[in-house]
Amino acid sequence: MKIASFNINGIKARLPALLDWLAEARPDVAVLQEIKSLDEAFPRSEIEDAGYNVATHGQKGFNGVAILSRLPLEDVARGLPGDASDDQARWIEATVVGEHAALRICGLYLPNGNPAPGPKYDYKLAWMERLESRAAALLEAEEAAVILGDFNVIPQAEDCRDPKAWEADALFLPPTRAAFHRLVNLGLTDALRATDASPGIYTFWDFQGGAWQKNNGIRIDHVLLTPQAADRLTACGIDKEIRSRERPSDHVPIWVALEA
Q: How far apart are CA 160 and CA 206, in angstroms?
């Protein structure tokens, strides 16, 4: 089973690019971030025509997440537990059943947190605490689960081209990285690093300053696996080439292949 994450940066603007990628990459499950669309405005029919079931958790103009699946989506849940007052559309999860096993798919768009310090950064760290609690519950239940999406976290210096430039940024501040490492240290596997420890692997290049042309990127899109899912990991990759296409997102897809 091929499971992918793609921050699409506006589903309406990039629907042709998304459909092209789906036809080429053929993920069984694709988790999207920053759909920037209300549920009723999401281009459901076009994606269903491409062979996918669709579940969305949308919001007008910003945020928004979705799960696209060739398999039926069961037990869909929207919103990260732990704060009933949080109305930002950043979390969606569902179960898919493969030929031999079920997987819980948890898609996220973690807050950016800038400017830091400040209320946006406080929200980011509080959100990461809630994420840690949800991950702990999945681990305690011994579920085969995949937690993936745009984490807005640069875990280590080798995950960015120019660490000095990110020292004061919410994506790279020590409390951000510490929260991410606490999450992984619960017993999760960073799928990319389990398969490739090389520096210089990025998933995001800014639209400004010639970042793509200079390969001035960062790795902020991640796939984390519970032990029951990590045992099935066979490959992980990044579809870097699509960043060079017409009207691209500033992110590229990251995917894993699991025996499922």
A: 12
